[in-house]
Amino acid sequence: MTTSLIMSAINEKIARSRAWSNPVFERSRRGPWSCEDARVIGFEYLAFTAAFPKMLSALCARVDDDGMRALLVEILHSELGSGNPENAHARLFVRLLASCLDAQEVTRALAERPQGRLPSTRDFLRGLQALYAEAPLSRALGAQYALEFQADNMLESLSRGFHAMRLDERNLEFFRVHEVEEKDHIRLMQIALQRLLHNGEDKEELMQGAQACTGLFSAFWHGIGEALARASPAAAPARGPSPDGMPAGPRN
Questions:
Q1: How big is the CA angle at 87 (ends 81 and 92), to the nearest 5 degrees?
Q2: H or E segment and range at residue 67
């Protein structure tokens, strides 16, 4: 199987999963989020975006191939603000949340519960950390490719929800940055996978890593969907099986 066919197979599986289509993303298509929506979604996503650079750093340190490490470091550099710490993605997201919630509440959420409020978020972060730091390298790189591929769709959904709240455009820089950078991250990971497979690494491990990462994101968004349903139970419709075999969360 060629590299392009492997990536196409991974992409198709992601596009059929709850990492790609889920109640949280569907909610963003139905009008403005409430402040409680922004709180439930935002605090859990903040835990991820704050933790991710350390996970990626751990993966960078494991890679022996200088060319592949350079590709990963380029992604890490942009995550950390491309040389300006004030533009680190986590800080941009904090500013976004502070524009629609109480700023002190946002600061406390990150300081007091850095792994999120929900058990499902804590499980998600532990699972992702284990993939990046402990799984066989091919599997870890497959996970990183899957993360970047699904992130473009994920961020588009989050952007739609926050934009509909009619926030000051100056506070939406998080999404403007990603409109440019995320596609470049996908391109860099495509090159990294080509190098990986050219070096004879196990494509099955790579695909298992992508599947594991997709499953973690599916569970992450499922947990947030459950939390949204608890916050507004009247909006929760009937459940059904999800495309990736997980119990579907409420379609809010």
A1: 125
A2: helix 66-79
Among residues 252, 241, 250, the alpha carbon closest in space to that of 16 is found at 241
| Residue pair 246/18 in contact by the 8 Å Cβ criterion | yes
How many Cα atoms occupy the beta-carbon half-sphere of 164 within 13 Å? 17
Instruction: Let me know: does 6 contact 193? Beta carbons within 8 Å.
Output: yes
- Going along the chain from its start, the domains and CATH numbers come out as 3-231 (1.20.910.10)
pTM exceeds 0.85 for this model: yes
Burial of 140-151, coded b for 16+ CB within 10 Å and e otherwise, reads bbbbbbbbbbbb
List the structure tokens of 220. Answer: 């992450």
Please list the pLDDT of the chain residue by residue as tens digits (252 residues).
677 888 899 999 999 999 999 999 999 988 889 999 999 999 999 999 999 999 999 999 999 999 999 999 999 999 999 999 999 999 999 999 999 999 999 999 999 999 999 999 999 999 999 999 999 999 999 999 999 999 999 999 999 999 999 999 999 999 999 999 999 999 999 999 988 888 776 789 999 999 999 999 999 999 999 999 998 754 443 333 444 544 443 333
d(CA 138, CA 64): 12
C-beta separation of 14 from 239 below 8 A? no
Beta bridge partners of 241: 247
- Which residues does residue 247 pair with via DSSP β-bridges, in sequence order? 241
Residues 6+ apart with CB under 8 A from 141: 59, 63, 68, 192, 193, 196, 206, 209
User: Is 209 buried (19+), middle (13-18) or exposed (0-12) by CB count in 10 A?
Assistant: buried
